[in-house]
Design brief:
This protein is an alpha/beta fold and 239 residues long. It is built from nine helices and nine strands. The structure holds S-adenosylmethionine (SAM).
Length: 239
């Protein structure tokens, strides 16, 4: 697995508009509608934009996780960027597990349909269950992951619960990425994780001065990434 750091982000920001590996996905991400599993055209909401999607794609391309866990699928746009990078760069060994309890109901199967349409479904496994149950079942089944992308329920307690369960199935060296870092409860979870989760080391995506400005002054940070550097050994009697 390669390093994801400020140099990676700098190179991405300098080049992302020139990259042409994801043109079809970029068009899909920008489209106001998508297609439900029953073929109906429905509005497309909640998805990552194409710049963010390209970032996820290049993160997977660069970091080369063998097993990816994704929480929160909606219309399947982030899933498609991740699965597409897995299909291109790890066609034999890559595997992507996606969790969303509302895929068939709220999202009318649009995420499933998108992956089928793009022939990416063979690299993915969808579990339609709440993340805390689904990931715990994966842990019980002995599954391990190298990258967890968390974009499910953004309330503080659900975000922390997702981090807890994801950390328990993450290999050491693996990454946990949180979407919407400066919004909802995620905004509260991150300072807690920064201070009280020594086994998860924040990857600085900018040089220190820009990092400070972006987070403390402008409060603009969409994705936050941690690397698991050890197992969690804090025990029960701590903060
Ligand atoms: C912002 S959307 C995800 C967007 C998607 N990652 C993308 O960029 O294309 C959040 C998703 O989380 C799902 N969700 C809500 N609560 C959840 C839970 N407890 N476990 C897993 N997914 C959940 C919702 O159904 C919704 O699809």
């Amino acid at each position: 697995m390669n390093q994801i750091d400020a140099a990676f982000v700098k190179a991405f920001l300098e080049n992302w508009q020139q990259k042409n590996e994801t043109i079809e996905l970029d068009t899909i991400a920008a489209h106001p509608t998508t297609i439900a599993l029953n073929g109906a055209e429905i509005p497309q909401t909640a998805q990552v934009n194409s710049r963010y999607g390209r970032f996820l794609y290049h993160l997977v391309k660069q970091f080369k996780p063998q097993k990816v866990l994704e929480i929160g699928m909606a219309n399947g746009v982030s899933s498609a960027y991740i699965a597409s990078a897995m299909a291109t760069y790890q066609p034999e060994s890559g595997n992507h597990t996606i969790i969303d309890p509302f895929q068939s109901t709220d999202w009318q199967g649009a995420g499933k349909h998108l992956l089928q349409r793009l022939h990416l479904d063979r690299y993915t496994q969808l579990i339609e269950h709440y993340s805390i149950h689904a990931v715990t079942q994966l842990e019980d089944a002995g599954k391990r992951f190298d990258f967890a992308f968390i974009d499910g329920n953004h309330c503080l307690d659900y975000t922390l619960a997702d981090v807890i369960v994801a950390d328990r199935v993450l290999n050491i060296g693996g990454l946990i990425a949180l979407d919407d870092s400066m919004a909802y409860g995620v905004n509260i979870a991150i300072p807690y994780l920064d201070q009280h989760r020594p086994n998860l080391r924040r990857i600085l995506l900018d040089p220190p001065a820009i990092h400070w400005l972006r987070e403390k002054w402008f409060k603009r940070r969409r994705i936050t990434i941690y690397q698991k550097i050890a197992e969690d050994t804090r025990g029960a009697d701590t903060i």
